Amino acid sequence: MAQRVQSVQEFLQDSFVPLVAALCSEEAERLTRKNNLGFCELVKPFCRLTSEVHMRDPNNQLHIIKNLKIAVNNIITQPPQPGAIRKLLNDVVTVSQPAEGLVANVITAGDYDLNISATTPWFEAYRESFLQSMPASDHEFLNHYVACMLVVSSSEPEPVEQFLKLSQEQHRIQHSNEYCYPKWFIPNTLKYYVLLHDVSAGEEQRADSIYEEMKQRYGTQGCYLLKINSRGSNRGADEQIPDPWSQYLQKSNIQIQESCEDGPYTVISNKNTDHFIPLDELGNDSKDGLSNNFKTHPLQLDHTSDSGCFDGTDYLKSNASLHESKKLNTGIPHGMCLTLTDHDRIRQFIQEFTFRGLLPHIEKTIRQLNDQLISRKGLSRSLFSATKKWFSGGKVPEKSINELKSTSGLLYPLEAPELQIRKMADLCFLVQHYELAYSCYHTAKKDFLNDQAMLYAAGALEMAAVSAFLQPGAPRPYPAHYMDTAIQTYRDICKNMMLAERCVLLSAEILKSQSKYSEAAALLIRLTTEDSDLRSALLLEQAAHCFINMKSPMVRKFAFHMILAGHRYSKAGQKKHALRCYCQAMQVYKGKGWSLAEDHINFTIGRQSFTLRQLENAVSAFRHILINDSKQTASQQGAFLREYLYVYRNVSQLSSDEPLPQLPLPYINSSATRVFFGHDRRPAEGEKQAATHISLDQEYDSEYSQQWKELEEQVVAVANKSVALSNFQPTQYCLNKYSDNSRFPLGVVEEPITVEVAFRNPLKVPLLLTDLSLLWKFQPKDFSLNSNGETKELITCGKDVIGAEVISEFLINSEETKMARLKLFPHQTGELHILGVVYNLGTIQGTTVLDGMDSSVGLQAGKYIPNGTSVRGRQDLEIQGPRLNNTKEEKTSIKYGPDRRLDPIITEEMPLLEVFFINFPTGLLCGEIRKTYVEFMNVSKCPLTRLKVVSKRPECFTFGGSSTILTPLSPSTSEHCSAYKTVLKHSTSVCSLMSSASSVDFGAGIGNQTEVIDVPLPDSVLLPGASVQLPMWIRGPDEEGVHEIHFLFYYESIKKHSKMCHRVLRHTAVICTSRSLTVRATAYRSNALENEKGEGDNMLVFVDVENINTSEAGVKEFHIVQVSSNSKNWKLQESINLSEDKDIKLANREKGKLCLKAVRCKDLLGMHLTFWNNFSTIKYRFHFEGLKLSFLFSDNYTFADIIFGNEQIISSTSPCADFFFRSLSSEFKRPQTQHIMHTSQGTAQQSLDNAVRLIQKCSEVDLNIIVLWKAYVIEDNKQLILEGQHHVVLHTVGKEAFSFPQKQGFKKILGNSDWEDLEQESPEMVLFNFFRPESSSVPARPSPDHLSNLIKTSLHYPETYNHSFHQKSLCVVPVILLLSNCSQADVDVIIDLRHKTTSPETLEIHGSFTWLGQTQYKLQLKSLEVSSLQLKACFVHTGVYNLGTPRVFAKLSDQVTLFETSQQNSMPALIIINSI
Hints:
This protein is 31% helix and 25% strand. Strands 12, 23, 25, 27, 29, 32, 37, 39, 41, 43 and 44 form an eleven-stranded antiparallel beta sheet that branches. Helix 12 (340-377) packs antiparallel against helix 14 and helix 17 packs antiparallel against helix 18.
């Protein structure tokens, strides 16, 4: 139980005090009314004695009475009705509420920190009023009057006669059969005569004379002169007199009725008293005003609030009127005519009455009763001696309560000795003689039990237990079983719940004082029945306090019983107390996973708060039900939602002028909010496909995002003349939680801003949002270059400034996450701040879709039926930025950066480009070339310029070179079916057709960024509203599979802007490639040092082409229509084919082999000589410049075409040359930083490296082969011709090169056996490796293969030689040894003609011949010089001889270290010697 203001002893003493009746004349009542008080109210604050009182018991022993209190009440002749008592108690509890600002008692139990009311004044007020309102009963005398005061005014004409009348009236009320109420203790009631004198108005002498007469008539012990009203009623306003009556009158004011002043007896006061309810208030239903009030009491209402509606408004009005009445009465001053001297006089009067009248009368009565009992029972002199006999002898076993008969209706006559004992016990109890009282109660208890008078026995047991507890020094323990028996008897046998309740209240206090909280709680819970909700609620609450005040607090039991108490309070109409109980219990259940319990508590709190018009609390409680992950059923959640909407609507109606409040539903995942700047993507129209760009339908990919950023940075650097911007920031069209939101995004005037908000419905019922739109505020600013960012007034609404899209209906199904895309249309420049969303929240009746409804309903066909209740509110979009983790301070603390995705800056109008791809292919063969068209459209009001496109795969598309003839604007007007530029072949042509082109023309010149391509717009400008179609060639990637090609279109406005310099448009094309051809090529040096025309060096190129296409592609066969070469040094001259059929067809899995002759280009010879002679001086300087050596002097390439069909494809024009140069550039863009490191080395080391590189260069050949083909495809019973080209780069003589890019893919095609042979040549298998990059590390010595190719040798001699050995025994044959310097530097050559080996095998191979003349020659060959040496071979007999025995050693002339090795001989030089 809660803490008490007074001790349990004081509580028990004050619960049973001597009762004194008061009967006043009208004039006396008038005198007291000057102070707004009745006589009983006047003396009430002074009824507790401040000094000890002495009296003697029947044994003449002195007994001390401390802190005695008496009760003076008006005579009420009608007993209070039970219904009126219930109303009184209900009102007492209603007005007693926790004091505002009262510090709660904080209890810590385990993980709980509970704020609990330290006291429960409503329970104490209820208990006090309950004990005072108990009607007097015949089985006990505690509530019987002991004495009666007769009060008469001294101003009456005949005061003595008035005393006589009042005395007769009292006698008539007590002794006539007309009145059965009130009850009187003894027939000879003490009458005390009080003369009331008004000091301010009356004559004091007359009052004294009347008092003297009274003393002679009634004796000095039986009368008293009380002087009051020493001051007039017109006292000064500044005088402050204490008001001791207010604390007592507040409890009684709640009972004031309008009919109070019309009581049946004018002499009887109609004010509430301390112990009894006034007649006018607690009488039967015939009294004026009582019946109607009682019938409309809340406890008897048919509560319909549980059905979903709140019908507590009438009760609220009654409570409001009650509080108004309380304020009205408590505001009236009391004792206005009384001075402090008058206060002392009244206090002295009560003491005199008690000392001289009441206590002597009680002492005398106790003696008389004691004597009567002794004489009647023939016992010893006093009960003290008799008690010893009764308790010392053997006890009579008491029967159990179940064995006793129900004799609660048994009545004893007033003269019965059992009642006399009880009467004596009650008198002793009232004057605090608890030991004697206990003895009497114990004696009476045994007599009553023997007579089976259970009502009397229960009363004796009850008071015996209390007396035993109150005995000083505690000679015996508290007999709790007495109380238990009494409670059970009252409740089960006597059916008197009021008496049982009194037992419980008394016993619980006693047990609590002994810290027996568990027993007290059990006792309180026993009396929680269905007959009284208010009593059950109060007792359950006290039981809950018992649980929490235990040594080991039982927190969950506390909460559970508080919930039960709150429920019973609610049934009793005590809404405030019910709300308080639920709120205290919520402290225990909150956040502990008891979701269903939390929902129930919050729901009840919401209802009670709404009933009490605490609308904010109601909304908060219902909000908690909805925002937590509820485990309720769908129907229950729907009920919760409807209640919330109903409450919320009432709140919004009361506060219509305030800003929109926050709604709890649906959930918004603020971090998942995405913002998109720009128009939505246009859908495809026929063969037109709009650029994919960016849309909210695309998922974020960090890898792709980084790729787009790099592309944009690359094109911006090119647009700014290759100057990388230090403050470069990529354009962000779509902002999300992964993007960089630290800076303000940029929007454009008249272009929409789409905000995607992620809504989640946590409930199992659908939510319907209507009139959904964005909340924003806008700060207009001028960002033009000629302004200084002028700021204007802040704007929060206005369609002229910002247009907002409104979604009329947005349905979110149960437990669904759904995105809403809301648009804003800015019409001015400035700073926009998107604050949140605003909408009407409602639900629907069901998920049935209407086919059609009457327009008067307000819904269109196909819409959902709303439930009828919706509320308008808002939710803010508050996005937390990323946590900062850069500095030490940020790492050691929790700081978050800004997230400005919802704060865009609206800039001036910019051009807006839309790109459409016409007939863009989705499937290609590897290497296939397809011609398509791209349409560029400017849909803004500003012209755009400097249109560029950048891609990581420039080798896959081209818009044509600068020399390309403009094609027709429409694809339908194209004259050529072929994607290539072709001319008819001359039939007489045998050799290749040559042409030349510069890489600069195709964007691959020195320093060019080949990934950034200018789009050839007419006049380089696209006007507003204009569109242009340009051709674009697409080449399928060489690798089979699915490929993504990213296009980033860059463009600018003609007018410069301060905020936005450029715009970009993204497009991702997906192309699926399938197998076509694979090409393998090998170059070998020819034996001939010159061709027929004497054109110097030449090579043989072998090209293997294999059809690896699968049957799924539908390709019938491939035709090799042309093989072209591309090089600065070499050109293909002719095809050496053994077959006369020039048409090369390859069916599935067929392979063709071509042999082509290549010669060195003449016009480049001199330039190369000059260059290589100065190589060591200039090489590293150019490497420092970061340039590729192949592009140092010229970007002109020689194209040579060998044609196998009827048309020549001009390989030096678009698109053939484009794809070649773009493929070349993709290889060329590799960084060459490793060469810079070499420049810091010493000169000697540099010279050595130069030598190694020169020797390596001899084996290298920069020859590029382009194989052009046609494929015939059967599709839909039609034959289509596809075109394409493959590239192979030849780096090294004798090393095979491939067109296929990846080992794994090639392994699948060739098989494991062929692949194992190719594993050793893996360095050559690089896609489009036209120019091998310089090796990152230079070897210390060149490889033998490189050294053997430094000098090319050739022997010229007759194949047969006839000689007459008969005439001349020695045959001498002239032989010419040709030496060709294959390097770009001077070479020292040594020719050794001696045979080093003499083994039989060698002799057998070489034959027996010898060289005549010098055995060793030394000579120096200039760069690329060819020299001849005359030799003579001597034979001694006929036979076949191999002349390839000379050994050639070579080294660079300027090198000290000899990289000397034997040069590779030509094929075996066989000569036949014949004899004639």
